[in-house]
Amino acid sequence: MPDVLPPNRLPDGLLLDRPLPIPSRAPLLDVRGLKKAFGGMIAIQNVDLSIAEGSVHAIIGPNGAGKTTAFNCITAFVPPTAGRIFLGGERIDGLPAHVVARHGVARTYQNVRLFPNMTALENVLVGQHRRLHATFWEAILGSGRFRREEAEARARAMEYLAFVGIPQRAGDLARHMPYGDQRRLEIARALVAGPRILMLDEPAAGMNPAEGRALVELIERIRADLGVTVVLIEHHMRVVMAVAERITVFNRGAILTEGTPGEIQADERVIEAYLGRRSGQVAAAASPEPQRQMEAGIA
Known about the structure:
By secondary structure, the chain is of the alpha/beta class. The protein has two domains: 175 residues, P-loop containing nucleotide triphosphate hydrolases (Rossmann fold); 78 residues, no CATH class. 36% of the residues lie in helices and 21% in strands. It is built from eleven helices and ten strands. The strands form two sheets. Strands 6-7-8-3-9-10 form a six-stranded mixed β-sheet, with helices on both faces. It has a four-stranded antiparallel β-sheet with strand order 2-1-4-5, with helices on one face. α3 crosses α5, α3 runs parallel beside α6 and α5 crosses α6. The longest helix has 20 residues.
């Protein structure tokens, strides 16, 4: 039988449907010496990050630590000042964002970025633009290829709305949807592009505990059922500890440490970064109190 990690436990003690397979040792995403400066201000520097293919990898850290800046550089939202970024062994830094997306990188954002006056179905259709090949004139004239691609795109969009759990919202305007459903819609739009790696920026922001548990299950299904590697920035430690196999901690524009959830939870440097205490003042990290304080401080 293949090696497996112990089943992940959700915050209320529930188990995920399946144990997590140990990810491949080969990195899908490899970041080396990443640096981003805005004028004279250095946002991140000396960032080395390796994401195993088939894994769920979390990035945490206090506000302003450089997490989203790293995401923005990797996805070509902003150009890095220095460093190299490889996806599947192929260098992608310096490429425009749409070409990086074609290589298989998809993302969501801290703030929901949907087309508010379009329906949920139409928002997911937008995510399929690189899959469609009919020309402008074929669309105007309603050619057979255009009609066929349109029908296939709509069916695929409905499949992904169902996958994230909101098929009933297909005809709803995005601006009329509850916040949690808007988050799911963003994930559906990113997934429909067929990415190799999905980068989620604070997907649990604004969610209640029940929605957080559902998000954990959705992320695991994305990895297990679709074969997509997931990297998430997240402040909700219960979500992180429930779903991540490895965690990288950012602090003050650099990587503070990296390890398994258990190792990170017991690292006094991480607790100090969140609570602003000297390590000698922090209680034993193995006790639940520092963890409760850390969760409360960043929820």
